[in-house]
Amino acid sequence: MLKRWPGNPLVTPEDVRPSRPDWKVDGTFNAGVARIGDTVVMLLRVAESVADAAAGEVRVPLLEPHGEGWRTTTRTFRTDDPAHDFSDPRMVRSRADPREVHLTSMSHLRVARSGNGTDFAVDDAPLLFPADRYERFGCEDARLTVIEGRCYINYTAVSDLGIATALAVTDDFTQVERLGIIHAPDNRDVCLFPRRIAGSYWCLHRPAPLHLGAPEIWIARSPDLIHWGEHRHLAGCMDRAWESAKIGGGAQLIETEKGWLQIYHGVDADQRYSLGALLLDLDDPRIVRARLSRPLASPVEDYERHGFFPDVLFSCGALVEGGELRVYYGAADRVMALGTCALADLWAAMGV
Amino acid sequence: MLKRWPGNPLVTPEDVRPSRPDWKVDGTFNAGVARIGDTVVMLLRVAESVADAAAGEVRVPLLEPHGEGWRTTTRTFRTDDPAHDFSDPRMVRSRADPREVHLTSMSHLRVARSGNGTDFAVDDAPLLFPADRYERFGCEDARLTVIEGRCYINYTAVSDLGIATALAVTDDFTQVERLGIIHAPDNRDVCLFPRRIAGSYWCLHRPAPLHLGAPEIWIARSPDLIHWGEHRHLAGCMDRAWESAKIGGGAQLIETEKGWLQIYHGVDADQRYSLGALLLDLDDPRIVRARLSRPLASPVEDYERHGFFPDVLFSCGALVEGGELRVYYGAADRVMALGTCALADLWAAMGV
């Protein structure tokens, strides 16, 4: 259903300056998106790796304690080192303790701005760079939500302690205040609602449980955006193939006349990521009013099928403007792209 | 260090009436404990299974929707059914979808009372029986914490949606009010503090992440006991064998002159559960002041080594009275036992 923008991809790694001269940019994807006045702001996930590893070596980017804070460094492994397992190109694992892991790339969050929503200028420096114990392996997959005039940034804080969700806030996309971990591991794909409902703030979140249960979408409630409770399971995997293995939240919630629109992702048994749509009740978002049975979009274009991780569409931000749904999405964990559809067509497909 | 009570075990399955005539009690263990006036109250986990399965059959207890609520039922599987896997005696798994699971036992929470802290009379009926979507497989491992004059019960709500932590409150151990899910899956071993510190309520919790990280102890903060945030990693596994595989919270927090005392559990590579002790700063419980390097106790007695699951000591409740630490603990997932030690000896062993 999603019509690809002819100028896709919108942002590629070649458009982004690395944060260190000895690092290279592998991906610019999974961006949070917000309209701020005349500007469409993207907060890109920029994934970087060490540029100049010698043959027979793997060098990983890393955060290490430095004085009161943290700084980046690199660590070099020899690929003939029998103590480590290099079989997964995304990580280096200790053979003695499989929980001792280093990731081969590290992500930070970088601003890009556009007047027309399609031509983006990317900042030269990060807005939010990994800087604490919970971000040793990176900051990923930001969502932007304007609530009561401030722009909240929720993002995935990744470390050897687990994959958690952190919150930050900015008023100008220059200064950022970190507000701490709002969902303990293993929890990502958090999507905020842009206003209070029934007196509370709300979010979707996606626990990934170790024992029973599957990675699916839950909803929680908060008095202050910092402390969350009243957790409920909201939407699960379905028998239809495209969302049979796992699902998780995507874009920030969008208020429409039909309800709260959520663009989420569904994953099939072959790890192929498609986009889906959910509609939640305006007055009680714990009620699912409609769910699109087929994908809003699945990977078909070359930049969606081939990249860092193949066959991935993953949205962290969308806008509804002039009756049109504009879904910004990361494609194949490498580039940013845009797809649009008339809201009326979406409602018809959802039967509302 | 823990001196076993000569009258151990304190409570056994033989002391407890099943909740249905066709069910049997397999375990009475992992009880929360509180002193309420002259009475020591235990809230036992009572694990039950179906009594009368025929040869070649497995019958599982189950909650099913009934009208507006839920009721218990049983489901029978033939052990020669090729669609299901019966190799783990604790569960029946669908071979087509390993996430489709039934547990062979279901737990509820039952009150026992004692005037002297060692002779307990067990109620004939459950206090808190599984009754909602999040409790389809049972309610487990309660902790009792008296806060501002009310007794809060946090417990593990187990279902096919995951292992979550729920909160309830009672004033009389007759009526209970459920307060919902306070930690989404996979999260159990939650321990509350009995009063506000720096204006907030606090808890320890134990996320079990699917991807990175290990099952370890985190701490969180709340304005109201319902909504939790400001999550921080508090204590991890250690190189010493007895707590090398995982750790998790045990008893409710106990205020002492030296700090907040936490009796927790550590698990070794062979799934052997020992008891440990942590001391947290009185004014800022995010600071670990001391940690016992050796176990407070490890399974040695016959009732600790052999039961439903071998070699387990697991405390959900402890008291400090007259300079003595009294640790109530589940042994081998079957019975309740008591161990004591002089607080002065514990402080000496912890170096405080």
Automatic annotation (TrEMBL), chains A, B:
Q: Which Gene3D superfamilies match?
A: Glycosyl hydrolase domain, family 43 (2.115.10.20)
Which molecular-function annotations from GO does this UniProt entry contain?
glycosyltransferase activity; hydrolase activity
Lineage, top-rank taxon, reads Bacteria
Could you list this entry's UniProt keywords, alphabetically sorted: Glycosyltransferase, Hydrolase, Transferase
**Entry's family note:** Belongs to the glycosyl hydrolase 130 family.
Please report the name of this protein according to its UniProt entry. Predicted glycosyl hydrolase, GH43/DUF377 family
Give the organism, scientific name.
Sphingomonas gellani
